[in-house]
Amino acid sequence: MLLLKALLLVCSATAVLARGKVDAIMSGACLVGQDTSKHNAQGEDVFKDPRNHPAAVASILAFSADRAEFRPREKGVITDEKVYDHFLKDVANFPGFRAQHQQTQQLNLQGSRVQFKKEVANKYQSDRNDPWEVARLLESLLPQEMDKENQRWLLNYVIVNSKQDNQQRPEQQEISVEIGSILLSKNSNSDKTKIEPQTAEMTMHAYVAKADNLKQHSSELSKRIRTMTVQKALRELATNGGDDGLVYEEEDTEDLEAWFRGLFTPLDLPTRHFPVSKWVVQY
Fold first, then answer.
1. Which H/E stretch holds residue 15?
2. C-alpha to C-alpha distances, 117 to 8, 120, 139, 184, 274, nearest whole angstrom
3. For residue 113, which of 79, 141, 150 has the smallest C-alpha distance?
4. How many Cα neighbours within 13 Å face the side chain of 42?
5. Which of 42, 170, 180, 256 fits 204 for a cystine, CB–CB 3.0-4.6 Å?
6. Which residues, listed in sequence order, are joined to residue 177 by a DSSP beta bridge?
7. Residue 16: is its pLDDT beyond 50?
8. What contacts 62, CB < 8 A, 6 or more positions away?
């Protein structure tokens, strides 16, 4: 497991170095599937009960984003790419997530939004999320206007997938996380946003929540992480607010403590969790 994490971090760092400078970041988030979280779940129960794990996973993502100072709801367009990179690394380091797969694709863009969506859907590879849903989410992040000084801009998306299999018990359901992005460039001096013909890079990292890990560490997690509804957590990850775990391994205790080390004392506020069948935040 430690080797897998090391490889993931090396790959993430390589992707960051290859990406180069980013001037602006727009972010969107959505839930795919059903939010099975109980409406009155709070605190430790959010992490202990697998039915509440959609809220648990969303809360972890919002927590990681906040401590990395990646706050698109609050700050709007993000102009400091370092906070985004810190968010990615923090998610990759969380002991309760298992790295599933990652991919990098080259998009041949011809200058139109319609072709943009088709190219994203054609190049996207995942058996958990619908390619056209991902393409529509990314297309929705294209702003009408942008500071003409921003020549390189990143469209980022976060998907929490909670598709349910009626043949499985709640503790057997898997909650997955997918974080992807497309880096676009523009050469014009206009402040109007236009997709110019170019070869753009699309990257994606996917994780699966380790249900047993969240259950075993539910007490510590609830003390450190402020839980919130899926809807509220995903809003925190969107520009201007704009959608059977593995067997526990011994070294996870050290990994979890290392992940928490050096944090500010989080707020420990009770929250209510409202069911959401499918919720998408758009820019």
1. helix 2-19
2. 28, 5, 7, 14, 32
3. 141
4. 6
5. 180
6. 160, 207
7. no
8. 228, 232, 233, 234, 236, 237
Task: Map residue 283 onto helix, strand or coil.
Answer: coil
pLDDT of residue 14: 41
Q: Radius of gyration (Cα) for the chain, nearest Å?
A: 18
Query: By C-alpha distance, which of 23, 58, 22, 28 is closest to 239?
Result: 28
- Residue 189's Cβ-count burial label (10 Å; 0-12, 13-18, 19+) is exposed
User: Does the pLDDT at position 10 exceed 50?
Assistant: no
Greater confidence, 240 or 15? 240
Q: Collapsing DSSP states into helix, strand and coil, what is residue 20?
A: coil
SS3 of residue 211 by DSSP: helix
The 10s digit of each residue's pLDDT in 133-176 is 999 999 999 877 777 777 889 999 999 999 876 666 656 678 99
